[in-house]
Design brief:
TIM Barrel, six-stranded mixed sheet, alpha/beta, 3 domains, globular, 27% helix, five-stranded mixed sheet
Length: 772
């Protein structure tokens, strides 16, 4: 999902679908356009040599209205007379093929699939090529499972919502708080899933990806406010420069085959019934080549919970006319025929929706006959959980782990100098916790305890029965273990009982008595103490940051099936950490000042703002923070000091016809080929090989309600000790240096822009040129 809909609604989906569960694993279900089927052999829609538009038109013309409406829902009904089997649209692949959603089943020949780190940790790698490669591997396993009869080809992933508030239970699913980073992740992961290299033809799809949840969706259940009733009040400015950014990149750059509209309303209109958002923006301005699907039971939610329309038929009309094509849930199948009969909506709107869904199915090859005879037909169970895929999951976890503290360079630990290490904490032997939510069945698990034991002899004590850590009776034993070992590794943090879909946090502190356990163990430990934190959202670790007995801190997110091995590799130096935080870590006081229901990004009065772009307040750890076992220097090799921005020659800079060029509308500039070339020399000045993330920030001239700073480019580079490399950035002037004004209009401020790369500062002046 999508999302986990209310249980009653999900049960209704099951019942109204006739109580059908998908075909058992390993038995190849019937497929459309079987060449052995005399009924369909000559149908044009079964001919791959014909244009997709012609094939879709032929298929649509053969359907009755009753058949059409049964294809408007996720569990699309079969059309036996045309040789079309039932199809389940709902599958998930957030960070590996998932068993959330009825479209995918594990068992038999495919007992599991590779489970990569939860997205928030993968984002911390700031490695765009890694994001693409993970998507490509996931789609290979997904297509292999489809060929084996255990999965579909339409995956409602990724989640590209901005991680606006640290309490959001689903922040773990996102690429973090920066809209540009989220957009870059979206484009790369979607291209990988659909297996469409940049610059290549996207008419054929390996699987179909989906950008969700559109839009301004980032509250699940907080103090009586839930996603099914929430009205996100968003300014035009915040909508354009924050909430919409990742979705635009997902559709325009990633060429996603689908977009999912969310449960919530935006400024009083349910997103699934908003023609300005769906038809106007997603399909119109961004040119979506695909279908728009509702989050699961969103139509029932907007009718039954939000009371947006007075009858079901009006709800059908409102959503179809807005641009919705597919309903995750039974609502359209139940009410669309009545809506047509009562004149609420025309059959042409239903046809328009089916054109979009059928076109995607055609692009997937679902009407090209036997899947085994198609170009990807060779993929099967042997291509799932391969050693290479599992190694990529391990490498992704290594690249994402963030080193937050390394007092006295105590890390990495040397196994040769340690006889026994204490491994303590409620997540110390975690397995399921490591894969987060929207996960499937992993190929295997390596827990932190197992990973550490591969390096040294261990003595284990959980300290708490679970992450809620409600009791303290096990603390004494844990402290004793730490007192009699050479080093202590505490693996603490959160899990899905604390942060999850439909579960937002109240506090940023460690749950229960976890802080007490850390301090008691640290102060009695004989050797150095390393704190490892598993979590999706940020945690206020001020106490550990200040505590001298806690020598090292690692954030490991939810690191996936190989998480324990990756944690151990970093602790013992087989891997040098290079991850950077993709979200700001706030102090606990932040949540006392900022309600989750406030969607405003900018600081005003006593409101401190949100994310590094606008937040004005104390931080535990800033966005982009992360240490290494080596050191790097960076020097500016080349960058212009002035850029002339040519105007289109048709308009003056100012709205009143004068040459007021303080902030030019981007649409009034000639932006094609207008790039800022910045070359940076980066050198590994330490004694260990390592990876460094170069981050280029921009601060525009003052006075434009602009972000404090904005990440405009990043690149992860791996350097051997003493090696040097030049990294070249081509910064899109109109896209990356522009701001959004109070009316939601994208403008390019003239004057000095400050580029920041680590400690480097460089001024670039933009000047309006050309015709005035």
């Amino acid at each position: 999902m999508a999302s986990t809909a209310p249980l009653a609604l999900l049960f209704a989906v099951f019942v109204l679908a006739g109580g059908r569960f998908p075909t058992a694993v390993g038995s190849r279900p019937p497929f459309a356009c079987d060449p052995r089927d005399a009924r369909t052999r000559s149908f044009p829609f079964c001919s791959p040599s014909l244009p997709v538009t012609q094939r879709v038109r032929d298929l649509l013309g053969r359907l009755t209205l009753a058949e059409k409406v049964q294809l408007l829902v996720n569990n699309a009904a079969p059309v036996p007379r045309l040789g079309i089997a039932r199809y389940e649209w709902w599958s998930e692949a957030l960070h590996g093929v998932s068993n959330v959603g009825p479209g995918t089943r594990f068992g038999g020949a495919v007992p599991g699939a590779t489970s990569f780190p939860q997205v928030i940790l993968t984002a911390a790698s700031f490695n765009a090529s890694l994001w693409y490669e993970i998507g490509r591997v996931v789609s290979t396993e997904a297509r292999a499972m489809y060929n084996a009869g255990s999965a579909g080809l339409t995956y409602w992933s990724p989640n590209v919502n901005v991680f606006r508030d640290p309490r959001w239970g689903r922040g773990q699913e996102t690429p973090g708080e920066d809209p540009a980073v989220a957009g870059k992740y979206a484009a790369q992961y979607v291209r990988g899933l659909q297996d469409v290299p940049f610059g290549k033809d996207a008419s054929r799809l390996k699987v179909a990806a989906c950008c969700k949840h559109y839009t301004a969706y980032d509250l699940d259940n907080w103090r009586g406010n839930d996603r099914f009733h929430f009205n996100a009040k968003v300014s035009k400015q915040d909508l354009e420069d924050t909430y919409q950014v990742p979705f635009k990149a997902c559709v325009v750059e990633g060429r996603a085959a689908s977009v999912m509209c969310s449960y919530n309303q935006v400024n009083g209109v349910p997103t699934c019934a908003d023609p300005a958002l769906l038809k106007g923006t997603v399909r119109g301005m961004w040119g979506l080549n695909g279908y728009i699907v509702s989050d699961c039971d969103s139509l029932a939610v907007l009718y039954n919970f939000q009371h947006y329309t007075s009858n079901p038929e009006d709800a059908v009309a409102a959503t179809l006319r807005a641009g919705l094509d597919l309903d995750c849930g039974p609502f359209l199948a139940q009410h669309a025929e009545d809506a047509v009969r009562k004149g609420k909506v025309g059959e042409k709107e239903i046809d328009a929706a089916l054109v979009h869904t059928m076109t995607v199915q055609m692009r997937l090859g679902m009407f090209d006959g036997d899947p085994s005879a198609q170009p990807l037909g060779h993929l099967g169970p042997a291509d799932v959980c391969t050693p290479a895929n599992q190694e990529l999951a391990l490498e992704a976890a290594r690249q994402g782990i963030v080193l937050l503290k390394n007092q006295g360079n105590v890390l990495p630990l040397s196994p040769a100098r340690l006889r026994t290490v204490a491994v303590i904490g409620p997540n110390s032997d975690a397995t399921v916790t490591m894969i987060g939510n929207y996960a499937g069945v992993p190929c295997r698990y390596t827990s932190p305890l197992q990973g550490i034991t591969r390096y040294v002899k261990t003595s284990h004590n959980a300290g708490c029965r679970n992450v809620k850590c409600a009791e303290t009776e096990l603390f004494g034993r844990a402290a004793t273990v730490a007192r009699h070992t050479d080093a202590t590794i505490l693996v603490m943090g959160l899990d899905q009982t604390i942060e999850a879909e439909a579960r937002d946090r109240e506090s940023l502190l460690l749950p229960g008595h976890q802080t007490d356990l850390v301090l008691q163990v640290a102060r009695t430990s004989r050797g150095p103490v390393i704190l490892v934190l598993m979590s999706g959202g940020p945690v206020d670790l001020s106490f550990a940051k200040k505590e001298p007995k806690v020598a090292g801190i690692l954030w490991a997110g939810y690191p996936g099936q190989a998480g324990g091995a990756a944690i151990a590799d970093v602790i013992f130096g087989a891997s040098n950490p290079g991850g950077k935080l993709p979200m700001t870590w706030y102090p606990q006081e932040y949540v006392t000042k900022v309600p989750m229901t406030s969607m405003s990004m900018r600081a005003t009065g006593g409101y401190p703002g949100r994310t590094y772009r606008f937040y004005q307040g104390e931080q535990v750890y800033p966005f982009g923070y992360g240490l290494s076992y080596t050191t790097f220097t960076q020097a500016l090799a080349e960058a212009p000091t002035m850029v002339s921005v040519p105007l289109d020659g048709k308009r003056n800079c100012g709205s009143n016809g004068t040459a007021n060029c303080q902030a030019v509308r981007v649409t009034h500039a000639r932006c094609d080929g207008l790039f800022l070339n910045v070359h940076v020399d980066v050198k590994n000045t330490g004694t260990r090989d390592g990876s460094h993330v170069l981050m280029v920030y921009s601060t525009p001239p003052a006075g434009h309600q602009a972000p404090i700073k904005q990440l405009v480019a990043f690149e992860r580079v791996h350097l051997q000790a003493s090696a040097q490399q030049q990294v070249r950035f081509a910064i899109d002037v109109c896209k990356d240096l522009s701001i959004v004004d109070g009316m939601g209009i994208q403008r390019l401020p003239m004057g000095p822009h400050v580029l920041q790369i680590g400690d480097l500062r460089h001024l670039v002046s933009l000047q309006a040129g050309g015709d005035l």
